[in-house]
Amino acid sequence: MRERILVTGGAGFIGSHLCRRLVEEGKEVLCADNLFTGSKENIRPLLGCGNFEFLRHDITEELYVEVDRIYNLACPASPVHYQYNPIKTVKTSVLGAMNMLGLAKRVKGRILQASTSEVYGNPKVHPQPEAYWGSVNPIGIRSCYDEGKRLAETLFFDYHRQHGVDIKVIRIFNTYGPHMAADDGRVVSNFIVQALKGEDLTVYGEGTQTRSFCYVDDLVEGMCRMMDSREGFTGPVNLGNPGEFTMLELAEKILRLTGSKSRIVHRPLPQDDPVQRKPVIELAGKELHWRPKVSLEEGLARTIAYFQGAVKA
Predict the structure, then answer these.
(1) Which of 102, 240, 92 is CA-nearest to residue 167?
(2) pTM exceeds cut of 0.90
(3) Which of 82, 88, 114, 187 pairs with 96 at a CA distance of 20 to 30 A?
């Protein structure tokens, strides 16, 4: 019998790429998503596949299915979406984690948690290794996501220690690529959509804050390697591209690649926006033999091509 895999948040940006990869590998894939930020368009090419099934479900409610492995990706991940209903965001991270861990415990299956670099908050250590505990504002507008994901990690390790659940935890740094939502408020999609529409590119603050951008195919490769990693290795493991760019550098690259005549304008910096974000990925290299391969230039070109088909000027 082929492996049956549950992907929560499977109709989302990253989840849809993961589902495609698993379907192509011949796995039996159950994609669960409540479609709050996910879209059926992202998984439409998979709907006719015999080894793919879509289930509309919110993981804050219990799910009774028989699976061998679980990728838990369900949670709005962009500030626009997770701040829209912050209490629901916390519920998705915390109750969702408990429900999925309960399922993993019952079926005796391996479960991977898609955590985030946001657990490091506005870091006082740069770049960020997995051993760093972070600097997070627990009462700010981003806390629903940051603290929700931190508590989900706590739950994963407590279920592992108390119940012997086979867990894997990754921390995802800024990821981009096709299937990003045009209105998700993330910097790559924002800049590309604004450039294609001829609108001003909005840079917050002076634009000197930095991010590291990982192309989605590289991330999915790392996720699959983590799921298949040796027994007893739980993580957490940083997955991201250590190439570091300022927001101004990113804006200028996108203007050049799109040929846009848009201007760069500055807006006030949002509350708790991290000044620096860059992963240390030595652990992923050692344990998973993983490094990102797609350069920012190449990844942006692919992402721009996707948005050119999705956005009308």
Answers:
(1) 102
(2) yes
(3) 187
